[in-house]
């Protein structure tokens, strides 16, 4: 609520009589760019993109959409100083590149999948079956690598000449920059610090990402989709992977780069980053909800008694939920196909990943800070 009110400050400053249609549009975007609205919107867009992949991936539809998106994305540089200052920072250039490259390669993969899925339905050969399997190292591969090397060198030289290096003043412990941001590729993890304790956001979750990536070839032994593009045959695997990459990685990097300002407050893309803005926030834990709100009593002094509601919820989430999922038809078939060990490894990684958006929703809706809060032993979840 405080963020929504803050998003309207420039409209109030401008005066009601001077508000233009462009100002109203900026205010609308600022209001809906807060994470509790924009993250579900990105999720809906992702689901719509995958389930409508046969239509929008047609070149006659995709390329006009990209042209319009590019005009809007860069066009507001001329229309809004705050937007221009954020987008043109040398540190933020890679994020724009990441956005466009992600969209392009997402289209490229889904376009191939759309053609292959259609060909399989009508009995035609796959795209990969029509290609020449034999590729010579010399000259085909060497020439390709040489051209790629030359192209990358040209891009890096132009980048270094045209853009100033994002160098700042010498580090001063007495006056750290506000906001203090990690390198752009770690901003997704830094955004997770809003929702999780540092040991969870900075150690456990990245570690589980690496573990999941390493274990993926052993978890997923389904031969469908090997060597050819398809979405129809691998919906769950592709959606799970892309949810982690697009929503929990790329979108959080965009948030951390473009929309997190001084004091790590959330600003709309057309808002001035006011370092004096204060967003009051009263955090609560699961123990507060149980004892104070529901039981109308004070918190017990015993740590274990105080945190038993959170421990029960955590035990349910990590241990009972993977089993209960097998009662659902799709996961029941996965359990039968994958076997005990591979299924439960996949299920535990899956519920840990889904804990991130669940914790986000708890933060947005009731300022939930911790499910288990044990500061006495530095353990908070």
Give descriptors for this structure.
two-stranded antiparallel sheet, 381 residues, mainly alpha
Count of distinct strands: 2
Distance between the termini: 25 Å
Q: How big a fraction of the residues is strand?
A: under 5%
**Which strand order does the major sheet show?**
1-2
- The coarse overall form would be globular
Give the mean pLDDT. Answer: 84
Helix content: 55-70%
Number of H- or I-type helical stretches: 17
**Global structural class:** mainly alpha
Report low-confidence residues grouped into runs of 5 or more.
Answer: 1-5
Give the biggest beta sheet. 2 strands, antiparallel
SSE sequence, one letter per element: HHHHHHHHHHHHHHHHHEE
User: How large, in whole angstroms, is the Cα Rg?
Assistant: 24 Å
Describe the 3D structure:
Helices cover 65% and strands 1% of the residues. It has 381 residues and is mainly α. It has a two-stranded antiparallel ribbon. The chain is globular.
């Amino acid at each position: 609520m405080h963020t929504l009110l803050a998003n309207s400050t420039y409209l109030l400053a401008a005066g009601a009589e001077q508000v233009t249609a462009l100002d109203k549009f900026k205010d609308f975007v600022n209001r809906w760019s807060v994470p509790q609205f924009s993250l579900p919107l990105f999720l809906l867009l992702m689901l719509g993109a995958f389930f409508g992949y046969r239509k929008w991936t047609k070149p006659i539809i995709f390329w006009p959409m990209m042209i319009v998106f590019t005009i809007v994305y860069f066009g507001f540089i001329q229309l809004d100083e705050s937007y221009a200052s954020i987008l043109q920072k040398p540190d933020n250039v890679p994020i724009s590149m990441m956005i466009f490259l992600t969209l392009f390669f997402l289209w490229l993969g889904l376009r191939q999948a759309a053609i292959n899925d259609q060909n399989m339905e009508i009995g035609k050969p796959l795209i990969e079956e029509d290609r020449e399997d034999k590729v010579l190292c010399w000259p085909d591969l060497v020439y390709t690598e040489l051209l790629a090397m030359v192209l990358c060198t040209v891009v890096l030289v132009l980048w270094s000449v045209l853009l100033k290096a994002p160098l700042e003043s010498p580090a001063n412990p007495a006056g750290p920059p506000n906001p203090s941001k990690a390198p752009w590729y770690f901003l997704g993890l830094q955004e997770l610090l809003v929702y999780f304790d540092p040991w969870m956001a900075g150690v456990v979750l990245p570690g589980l990402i690496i573990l999941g990536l390493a274990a993926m070839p052993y978890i997923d032994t389904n031969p469908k989709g090997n060597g050819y593009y398809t979405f129809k045959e691998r919906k769950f695997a592709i959606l799970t992977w892309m949810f982690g990459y697009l929503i929990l990685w790329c979108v959080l990097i965009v948030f951390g780069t473009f929309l997190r300002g001084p004091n790590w407050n959330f600003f709309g893309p057309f808002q001035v980053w006011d370092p004096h803005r204060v967003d009051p926030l009263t955090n609560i834990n699961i123990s507060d909800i149980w004892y104070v709100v529901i039981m109308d009593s004070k918190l017990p002094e015993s740590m274990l008694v105080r945190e038993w509601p959170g421990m029960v919820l955590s035990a349910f989430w990590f241990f009972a939920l993977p089993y209960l999922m097998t009662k659902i038809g799709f996961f029941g078939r996965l359990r039968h196909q994958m076997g005990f060990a591979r299924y439960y490894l996949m299920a535990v990684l899956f519920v840990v990943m889904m804990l991130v958006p669940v914790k986000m929703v708890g933060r947005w809706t009731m300022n939930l800070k911790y499910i288990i809060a044990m500061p006495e032993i530095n353990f908070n979840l």
